[in-house]
Amino acid sequence: HKRSYQEVEKYQGSVDYDLKRIISDIWHTSLRSYIFMFLQMLEFNSFSQLPQITIPTQVLVGTADTVFPCAYSRIVAQRIPHAEYVEIKDGNHILIINEPDTVARAIATFLYDKGLMNQV
What is the per-residue pLDDT across 60-75, written as a single tens digit (0 to 9) for each? Predict the structure, then answer.
């Protein structure tokens, strides 16, 4: 049973814990995959490895993120050498859905500034 995820626009403007969006996420992945993802998130810890990152890194966070708040994102950015930390005003955890243009612009500017992209 193959399902495609084509409901992104339907959930623009949703909050971090939007029950309808979460049900849609589960429907488009499977309950087993969704539970597995959460269990892996609880067990995964790369904090000690962050200082070993040597590639240009940008940490994007929404100021209204209730899943991974700004304070945590700042710590992550501080642990990565030369990381760029960017806060998106009023953005929540699902920035790519709710703030796609802002996220794309931030990433494009970052890549351009690092010489990894020819134009913004």
Answer: 999 999 888 899 999 9
Strand partners, 84: 58
d(CA 29, CA 92): 22
pTM, two decimals, is 0.73
Percent residues over pLDDT 90 in the chain = 44
Q: How far is CA 38 from CA 3, 21, 43, 80, 97, in A?
A: 21, 16, 9, 24, 20
DSSP helix/strand/coil, 64: coil
Q: Please compute the mean of the pLDDT values over residues 2-29 and round it to a whole number.
A: 66
The burial of 74, by beta-carbon neighbours within 10 Å (0-12 exposed, 13-18 middle, 19 or more buried), is given as middle
Q: Contact 88/106 with Cβ under 8 angstroms?
A: yes
β-pairing verdict for 84-88 and 58-62: parallel
Determine the distance from the C-alpha atom of residue 25 to the mean position of all C-alpha atoms in its chain, rounded to a whole number.
15
